[in-house]
Amino acid sequence: MKVREHFKNDTLKGKMSRLLLQLFIPVIFIFISIIAMIVTRNVMFASVSGNIAAASGFNQNFKDDVDLQMYLYVSGSSDEIPWDDVALARELAEELLQSTKNENSRKAMKNVIQLCDNMTTYMQRIQETEQYDERMEQLETNIYGITQLIQDNFYVYLYHEAGEMAGMQRRLDYLLAAEIAIVGIMTIWICLVILRRAFKLSGSITGPIMEMNTRVEAIGGGDLTPHTPVKTNDRNLASLSTGIEDMAERLNKQIELNRQEQILLRETELALIQAQINPHFLYNTLDAIVWLIESGKNEQAETMVTSLSFYFRSFLSDGRDIVTIAEETKHVRSYLEIQQVRYRDIMEYEIDIDPSIAKCKLPKLTLQPLVENAIYHGLKPKRGKGNITVTGRSDKGFIILEVKDTGAGMDEDTLTSLLTKIHNEDTTSFGLVSAYKRLKLLYGDDVDFDILSKAGEGTTIDIRFPGKEELEDETIL
Fold it and tell me: What is the value of pTM for the model shown?
């Protein structure tokens, strides 16, 4: 009798060992897959972000510097030719070409290399030419155009590399969704294995198995809270029950890990959007401040520096992604004050926000992309002075913010195409798309984003979302 009982226990123990092995292998597989995805993501982002950083370090005043040095040489005011500037531009293009995979970006760098070679040839010709008129003609015909093309190609490279990074972001989102699906499939598979084993052993251990069966069904339904293992005199069954609880704990940790990964991806996307918005604005603003100081307009320069200080202070907003409408209004006011100094001949603005909505919450940098769009695509293309009006009001529990300009406007086909890009979250219009996307993440289908425009009559952008004063920063993620 003892020998038979010992054999029976060994058989049960062997079955439980195989069951635990079947549980262990999928967990290892999922763990390895997640590690591989994280490593792949880091490598991909490091490559593209490194290229963007290197290209961003290119001298933004390349054209002005080279054109000035060549003019001074041709006019006889200087004996130096900017060989080094052209060589550095070519060297940077060759380095970027080696580490760049995007075909459009590679084409831009190939263009830069060819243009730098042409530039060197033309500078040599000017050096060999003695007649002042011929040298000046070569300067205006060849040098000025090539420096502009070199600088433009670096901007084209940055544009396509930013698009490449956004594309990587979407692919990684798809990989993460697939990883979650695999976890779900493995969970169902594990549950089926456990149920099959439980029914085979139910003749002698019906009670504990039924309890474990109930627990497994609860896990399949999403209940991963800690439970006390099944109480039984059979050590094998006790071990099995403990294993189930350990599995639930690991699944719970895995789900949390996936959630944190999604948060990180969202933060990276928002950081990329903000990084794309700020550099050119900062460069241009600092250039304008320098110009004001050189022109002796110290009071205007001081005003502009103060506005820039308020702008970045509100931009940082203590690290928060969600701000009040009052804070967003201060931010966009500082932005418009800076831009008015730069475009004083073409721009006037007015801000009229109802004080009753000042404490309502919205994502940071919601209004600036709309105002920026009004300046660069509305007022600048139109000759003469134009106006930008920013208004805000409450309507039946909803906030309505409006940015209106009297600029060039759009025809119907262009307007339809822009609205399609925004609602499809097309990265080629990242400023407006980012404002729309972050409002959607925060308020879901309650957000309404509309654009009205007519060619020659200006453009109006209306956004409508629920008026809420109590929101946490993480709700946007």
Answer: 0.44
